[in-house]
Amino acid sequence: MSLETDAASVSTFEPLLIPGLLQTAAYARSAIGAVSMNATTDSINALVEVRMARQAVLTRPEPLKLRAIVHEAALMASVSGVAVMRDQLQRLLDVAEYPHVTIQVLPCAADLHPGLTGAFTVLGFGQPGLDVVLLEHLESSLYIEAPSDVGRYTEAFERLTAAALPFDRSLSTIAEHKERNQ
Fold first, then answer.
1. φ, ψ (nearest 5 deg) of residue 138
2. Based on the number of CB atoms within 10 Å of its own CB, is 17 exposed (0-12), middle (13-18) or buried (19 or more)?
């Protein structure tokens, strides 16, 4: 959370989930409950509160610049009922109106791409050599700081950007999936 607060930008690729900075509370509760297999209701609720608090970086006076690429599979997931997913997709459409947020959809029909190895997030700090890559796993997180390694993830993100649908088409795709959840 402190890295996001200090970062100037975040570039994130998610193949199966909506990125945490864009989740509704109901979606977050489902996602956290699914991966926190032994968590209590209280601990899940506490984690949801933290996730919702993290989103303040998008509405602060100098907001974080967010670039998110979401695989289309994440838009089709069954998450605690139709209403939760419909509201989540509407949240994506709403946040996409912020001038500092770009959301793109990587379609299911995309060719093989560098995101096949999984989700990753590049946190940018506006100075060379300070960027960090975050890889989240079931039981832990890995932070990659070596500039050459961060550079490979930055290049992978740019390739995913090129493979993803353009911004307007991405929003249309999200809206189409939302309509299917009526």
1. -60, -45
2. buried
* Sequence spans of domains, the chain: 2-180
Amino acid of residue 63? P
- The Cα–Cα gap between 166 and 59 comes to 24
Q: What is the pLDDT of residues 124-181, one digit of tens each?
A: 998 888 999 999 887 788 999 999 999 999 999 999 999 999 999 999 999 999 998 7
Judge contact between 91 and 22, C-beta under 8 A. Answer: yes
Q: Which residue has tokens 């996602």?
A: 31
Q: Hey, what's the torsion of the CAs at 132, 55, 113, 130, to 10 degrees?
A: -10
Q: Answer yes or no: CATH 3.30.870 is held by domain 2-180.
A: yes
Here the tokens at position 41 are 């209701």
User: Closest Cα to residue 89, out of 67, 108, 64, 70?
Assistant: 70
Q: Are strands 101-106 and 9-14 parallel, antiparallel or unpaired?
A: unpaired
